[in-house]
Amino acid sequence: MDARTQEFLAYVQDGGQVEATDWLPDEYRQKLIKFIEMHANSELMGVLPEREWILKAPTLQRKLALTAKVQDEVGHAQLIYRVAEDLGKPRDEMFADLLSGKAKFHNVFHYPTHTWGDVGVIAWLVDAAAIISQKALLKCSYAPYARIMKKICWEESFHILHGRDVILAMMTGTDAQRELVQEAVTRWWGPLMQFHGNPIAREEDPMYVWRIKSQGNEEARQQFLEGYVPQIWELGLTVPDPNLRRSDDGVWEYSEPDWAELKSVVTGHGPRSQERLAFRARFLEQEKWVRDAMLAA
Amino acid sequence: MNARATLLLSIADDELILGWRDSEWTGIAPTLEEDVAFSSIAQNEIGHARALYELAAVELGSDADALAFDRPPEEYRCAPFVELRLMDWAHTIARRYLYEEADRVRLDALRRSDDTELAGLAAKIDREEVYHRMHAEMWAARLRDEPRFRAAVNELWPYALGVLEPQQRAELARRVGLSDESSQAVERGEHTPELTELWNEMTEVRRSVPGASW
Amino acid sequence: MIFEVFRQERKGQPFAHAGSIEAPDAAFADAWAREQYGRRGESEALWLVPRDSVHQITEWADEFDLKYRRVDGYSIKSRLKEARERAGNTSAVDR
User: Fold this and answer.
1) How far is CA B99 from CA A109, A125, B80, B136, B184, in A?
2) Nearest to B49 by CA among B87, B23, B86, B26
3) According to the model, what pLDDT value does residue C94 have?
4) Residue pair C66/C51 in contact by the 8 Å Cβ criterion
5) pLDDT given at position C66
6) How does pLDDT run across B23-41, given as a tens digit for each residue?
7) Is the Cα torsion angle A78, A83, A84, A85 positive or negative in sign?
8) Which pLDDT value is given to residue B179?
9) Are B30 and A290 inside 8 Å of each other by CB?
10) pLDDT tens digits, residue range B45-101?
11) At what angle do helices B32-60 and C26-38 cross, to 10 degrees?
12) pLDDT at B8 over 60
């Protein structure tokens, strides 16, 4: 590592932030773009499991809330892609890399949704897992990214409340509704436990080393468990892990997540990976003429 | 059902079904920026529908959700125009543009109505529609020379006429610059098969546990 | 064109940079920014400024001592003590 890069590293590790117009080491810039791109891709692909439920929402209020939630996710994608664009990667290129599989998106968005129970669980628990990761970006060394995270976290807070409201309506409803929730929690537990990534030490995680993230993977997972397992258990719901428990020193113990599944899924072999990418590709292609019309003077 | 309830339901159903159609674009609009803006329009339409259903609910001893979701397809009073599934952008924008023009004629009349409650709601809706119109006009201007768009407008014109009462159609034709021969108009009354398909999807969760609170 | 978005949260507050939007022209930028930054009624006002119109300044001549222009360039404590003593206020508490 040359002296200038070393100096930069020490600066960010000391809490320093940089702007789009500052000098950035190549390694930092590349890692940053890759991280931000995956985040943007995830917001974009995250829309697809949820949008079909907008159409099926069982009340006007839920339809409005779910449309607004998904709209927020599209808005987040715009904010995040814009940051990556200013780092030098054009949006078209990012879309091409997403569709070719070169760029990735988070595991949870590769799975199917089956019922309204999924709608509740996604907004309550999947968004909760995401917001923990997102809060860890509020102090990102790259300031433009840190700044948009503030708006994103603020908007996500309504998603979780909406999610909880949807869940509570079902948990105080009929047995059939309660069963929808339990079935969804059971099915989503595996992907949720994998969501924050395998527990490499944060000093070995380049995202932490460069202070792009301010916490390691295991720290994030522990925060999720600490915040949300009590919320799950207090409703009389169970998770499919007999080993899940909080030890006396406050650390949550759990069965080893299936890291092979995580790897397989994020490399495009999830149950809905290819179908969703194809869906997105179809509309991108179909509407190219519109974007061309917008480029015309 | 009295005339007032019928009128309220026909406008509410137009806004609900069009809002439902427009919400289909969430996540797949031509650009992310447009996706966000378009989704707000869809939400506004659902919001208008809800306000209209709430007025009708008082007349009919019901509630907004029951009116929106629990009637069978044949009891909806929407115009065929809003039922069409138009998953290409040229047709979608053509419909936005024509519907906003038709709705403006309709809202202008309602705002002058002796029914103060309805006139008040029409004025409120109209204040939000200002932005829908700006959006539609912006797109119509940009796609003005695009053959796909012109073709879509012409194709959908008879449906647009059918949104309005016959005596309002000349005004719409004048604004849009097309012929108002009402013989072309695709009238309210008979629904398209697309409405049944839409209704099945729209009510799937609600019907799965009848009477449940969601 | 890229438009920088400045947002005022409440009346009287400063306009703060909130992000940017790429749009074909000002009409699209208006339609898109108002939803991206105002759909919840969270903004009192927005300024949309083409990026090219923003002139950035980040370099400063920092050669000579400028402390005389700042509060931290002044230390009056010891002189104040001496002046008070001269005026016969030796028992005064140092403020």
Assistant:
1) 35, 40, 12, 9, 17
2) B23
3) 57
4) no
5) 84
6) 999 999 999 999 999 999 9
7) positive
8) 86
9) yes
10) 999 999 999 999 999 999 999 999 999 999 999 999 999 999 999 999 999 999 999
11) 60
12) yes
pLDDT digits (tens, 9 = 90+) for B54-67: 999 999 999 999 99
Nearest CA in chain B to A295: B142
Exposure string of A14-45, with b = 16+ CB inside 10 Å and e = fewer, is eeebbeeeeebbeebeebbbbbbbbbbbbbbb
C-alpha distance from residue B137 to each of A177, B95, B177, C20 (Å): 45, 12, 14, 24
| Topology of the domain covering C2-53 | Ubiquitin-like (UB roll) (3.10.20)
Question: Which of B135, B137, B139 to mutate against chain C (most C CBs within 10 Å)?
Answer: B135
CATH number of the CATH domain containing A287: 1.20.1260.10
Average per-residue pLDDT for chain B: 96
Q: For the full predicted model, state whether its pTM sits above 0.90.
A: yes
Tokens of B87: 């998953």
- Rounded distance, CA C69 to CA C52, Å? 33
Residue at A218: amino acid letter: E
Angle at A239 between CA A236 and CA A242, to 5 degrees: 110
Nearest CA in chain C to B132: C31
Q: How many CB atoms lie within 10 A of CB C1?
A: 13
Domain range for A283 is 3-295
Residue A221 has pLDDT above 70, yes or no: yes
Q: How many domains does chain A have?
A: 1
Q: How crowded is residue C68: how many other Cβ atoms within 10 Å of its Cβ?
A: 7
Contacts of B135 in chain C (CB under 8 A): 31
ipTM beyond 0.90? Answer: yes
Q: Which candidate in C32, C40, C48 is best for mutational testing of the B interface (most B CBs within 10 A)? A: C32
Averaged pLDDT, C12-27: 97
pLDDT digits (tens, 9 = 90+) for A236-258: 999 999 999 999 999 999 999 99
Q: Write down all domains in chain B, each with its CATH number in brackets.
A: 3-208 (1.20.1260.10)
Length of chain C as a residue count: 95
Task: Give the SS3 label for residue C57.
Answer: coil
Q: Do A177 and B209 touch (CB under 8 A)?
A: yes
CA angle (A102 as vertex; A96, A108 as ends), nearest 5: 100
How close, in Å, is residue C61 to chain A by CA atoms?
18
C-alpha distance from residue B168 to each of A191, B33, B176, B184, C3 (Å): 56, 35, 13, 15, 41
Average pLDDT, chain A: 96
Q: What is the mean pLDDT of chain C?
A: 91
Assess A5–C contact: CB distance below 8 Å, yes or no.
no
> Which of A21, A148, A151 lies at the smallest CB-CB distance from C56?
A21
For the segment C56-74, the average pLDDT, to the nearest whole number, is 87
Check A295 against C56: CB less than 8 A apart. Answer: no
